Amino acid sequence: MKVQTALDIGSGPGINIPLIRTYAKKITCLEASDTAVAMAQRKFPDLTIVSGSFPQTVPGGNFDLITMFDVLEHIEEHAEALQTVRSLLKTGGYLMLTVPAFMFLWSAHDDHVHHKRRYTRRQICSLLADAGFRIERATYFNTLLFPAIAGVRLFQRTLKIRTTKTDFDMEPPRWLNSVLTRIFGSERFMLHYGNLPVGVSIFCVAKK
To answer: Which long-range contacts (CB under 8 A, 24 or more apart) does 10-19 make?
Structure first.
């Protein structure tokens, strides 16, 4: 199914635009970083890009689809932000979002990128329901790598190991990065059979 209009909130340099284009014919982007806006405009000159932070900046119009990939955790008043998202959707429109999971996985990376919180599946579903959405699907993902990531986080916390390194600083060997990418990518087949019970992140589809 392909809709007419979509809004990508926190679009960055446009990494997710090819994916969103499989769902929507016309895409509007909202991004706070001038550098990211310039990169997106160079790569996708046909895009409508609005510069500003959500929810302080709200593009005009109503949309069939709104995407928020790793955005909500940056917003202090997240409940109010979801209500604003709902007001921007047409009746029957969809919201697709991802958020990081589990506060016990909090690390230097969360501090570095200015996260306000991490979520459980129950928490994000409750927020969406309170904002007037109907949950179509909510699942954890990055499940297969979850034991290793959780183990490292808990090990650091137990031994009180402090580090200023973030996930962006990690540079695994090319062969290892290829293996990890394949493991992560294999989850798309698992999702055909149902929701995943645990993971590093959460993916939700909700309907107005």
So the answer is: 10/54, 10/68, 10/69, 10/70, 10/71, 10/74, 11/36, 11/40, 11/49, 12/36, 12/40, 13/39, 13/40, 13/43, 14/39, 14/40, 14/43, 14/44, 14/47, 16/67, 16/69, 17/43, 17/44, 17/47
